[in-house]
Amino acid sequence: MDTADQLASVGTFQVLKLPLGFIRVLEWVFAIFAFATCGGYSGQLRVSVDCMEKARSNLSIGIDFAYPFRLHQVSFDAPVCEGIREERVFLIGDYSSSAEFFVTIAVFAFLYSLMATIVYIFFQNKYRENSRGPLIDFIVTVVFSFMWLVGSSAWGKALSDVKIATDPDEVQLLISACKVQTNKCGSVLEPRWSGLNTSVVFGFLNFVLWAGNIWFVFKETGWHKGASSLAGGGSEKQSGTFNNQGILDQSAGYNTQGNLSQPTEYSQVGGPTSYSNQM
């Protein structure tokens, strides 16, 4: 407890109330859901082969598949309905590249979000003492935003292909006994896709979070601060110009009024003088 209290006293947890820190925490949580729902998936489907000779039938053929979805390595035994022998049937397709790419992005995003949150809390002064830290943070945020978009799109396309490849109606076409009209094949159990559908949703939600956080990270960089200082200097210069012009106009007005009033005084003084001379 003493160590926790010391860390709490040293850390600046107020940053978690700001968009910069709060969004990082959301990125950390959403990345966990993204790679957990995809990387931890395992599904099963079942088909039945009802041969003309009932003794050779198999009404519950289980086919298991899981991440990383190398379906061409998934096999099952199906009856041939001719004799007592069986055939080894393999599914079609290899979607491991898209699935592994998606999970890899999620894992690295999870690690970076955790590290960035720790830096924001406990090393905020070092983070802001020079422009290198915010600049690296900005570049990494932009890269992860792009990678989330690419990875989520690729995994969404791969998931639709996985659904087609593991459709019981499509799997029946791979069984030679199902091509014989005297035999009957059917679907017993279809895979559940709620977990994988959720993974795609979390992928695009992560893209929205990372893309939205670009602005808040950019505000910490020297580029934004330099632009703000230039804009502030320009406004001060413009206001100074207006003040100088006002002073010049005001002094010019005073000079004009003085020049106009001076001949009047001279004319009043000179009037009686000229009259006395005439007398």
Write up what this structure looks like:
The longest helix is centred in the last third of the chain and has 57 residues. This protein has eight helices and five strands, in the order H-H-E-E-E-E-H-H-H-H-E-H-H. The strands form two sheets. Strands 2-1-5 form a three-stranded antiparallel beta sheet. The chain has a two-stranded antiparallel sheet with strand order 3-4. The protein is rod-shaped and about 80 Å long. By secondary structure, the chain is α+β, with helices and mostly antiparallel strands. The termini are far apart. The C terminus is likely disordered.
Briefly, what is this?
The protein is an alpha+beta fold. The chain is built from 8 helices and 5 strands; from the N terminus they run ααββββααααβαα. 23% of the residues are buried.
Jot down its keywords.
279 residues, alpha+beta
Q: What topology emerges from the helices and strands here?
A:
Elements: H1 2-10, H2 19-39, E1 42-50, E2 58-66, E3 75-79, E4 86-90, H3 96-122, H4 124-128, H5 132-165, H6 168-172, E5 184-189, H7 194-218, H8 222-278
Antiparallel strand pairs: 1-2, 1-5, 3-4
Helix pairs in contact: 2-3, 2-7, 3-5, 5-7
Strand order of the largest sheet: 2-1-5
Distinct helical segment count: 8
Question: Rounded to an integer, what's the Rg over CA atoms?
Answer: 39 Å
Give the end-to-end Cα distance, rounded to a whole number of Å: 112 Å
Q: Helix amount, in percent? A: 55-70%
Main sheet? 3 strands, antiparallel
**Strand fraction band?**
5-15%
